From TrEMBL:
L-tyrosine binds at Y39, Y176, Q180. NCBIfam families: tyrS (TIGR00234). It is found in: Cytoplasm. One of its GO terms (molecular function) is tyrosine-tRNA ligase activity. PROSITE patterns: S4. InterPro entries: aa-tRNA-synth_Ic (IPR002305), Rossmann-like_a/b/a_fold (IPR014729), S4_RNA-bd_sf (IPR036986), Tyr-tRNA-ligase (IPR002307), Tyr-tRNA-ligase_bac-type (IPR024088), Tyr-tRNA-ligase_bac_1 (IPR024107). Catalyzes the attachment of tyrosine to tRNA(Tyr) in a two-step reaction: tyrosine is first activated by ATP to form Tyr-AMP and then transferred to the acceptor end of tRNA(Tyr). Keywords: Aminoacyl-tRNA synthetase, ATP-binding, Cytoplasm, Ligase, Nucleotide-binding, Protein biosynthesis, RNA-binding. This is Tyrosine--tRNA ligase. Belongs to the class-I aminoacyl-tRNA synthetase family. TyrS type 1 subfamily. It comes from Sphingomonas hankyongi. A motif ('KMSKS' region) lies at residues 236-240. A motif ('HIGH' region) lies at residues 44-53.
Amino acid sequence: MTSFRSSLLQLLEERGYIHQVTDAEALDALANKEVVAGYIGFDATAPSLHVGSLVQIMLLRRLQQAGHKPIVLMGGGTTKVGDPTGKDESRKLLSDDDITTNIAGIRKVFERFLTFGDGPTDAVLVNNDDWLSKLEYVPFLRDVGRHFTINRMLTFDSVRIRLDREQPLTFLEFNYMILQAYDFLELSRRVGCRLQMGGSDQWGNIVNGIELTRRIEGTEIYGITTPLITNPDGSKMGKTERGAVWLNEDLLSPYDYWQFWRNVDDTNVGVFLRRFTDLTIDEVARLEKLSGAEINEAKIVLATEATAMLHGREAAEAAARTAAETFGAGGAGEELPTLNVGDGMTVAHALTALGFTPSNKEAKRKIAEGAVRLDDVVISDPAMMATSGRLSLGKKRHGLLVR
């Protein structure tokens, strides 16, 4: 039985979002008494977020569902620096125009999950470039930098791992943790933000922001981190052979997004139903008890509910129908990705053009393994010219070739 009194922490606990909390008792009391504004930061390094960010997006959704105020902090300023956490090398520096374009693309995703507006619990999107780019260097060093010691900064995994591997860590990146801590201070000043949330790898950065704000403002603020979700092989959720599972429809179709969820490992189905759908806990409990062949029912529900949340119910049900036709009745499926091959495209080239393989070399390897079929006939010659039909890679990747 939960010991939390606030609907916020009760909801996060029963859905499996809580890994660590700073002063859980005080945060619980605050959330039980008033509307809490909480934020998560997202750097704008690409025109879309991918499914690896979905835990944090859902965390903001749960915050709003519990009657509190989500703040989406876009890192227009910190993107210019680059978060070294989990990175083996420096990120490519982006132009202001690139960052602006990326933020516009990312906002579309949040509009699917959150209600934006001017109300007390409506979500807001803010950009840390609004304050970071206006900082004066010497005053910032004097007022903020003096609260950070190099000794402690060197103990952070994001720094220590790069140094242990003798990989370059620029002074630019070294400043990232200070800027992130300053974001929390600035948000507490500007919009009364009392909570920062993030993945478990952000714990140190969150604590930095809490300590900085207490020292400078004397404000009590809090942090929550979520557990890391991994595949059975230890890799991060969302990492696939085909690359990132993007959340924007122009980068990944609703059908392919549906297929990602349909094909998750059996051991993750219950966890994903809790964290990535709005199904009741009772319904999740029923579905996660299914085993054997029946687990596929739970996976289909997961895929349809997760896809409906991002792309809408109609697109999710169309993807489910296409999958049923393709895998169940041997049909084509109207939502499958389609490629016009004309008169001069090889099967290997078609595999790459559909996005099933990252290169023609990999496509040829898959053909040599006997993993490629055209209308259920195994293809053995990578130089074979593509004709109209259903092209398949393994049991999970299917596309329509037309001429």
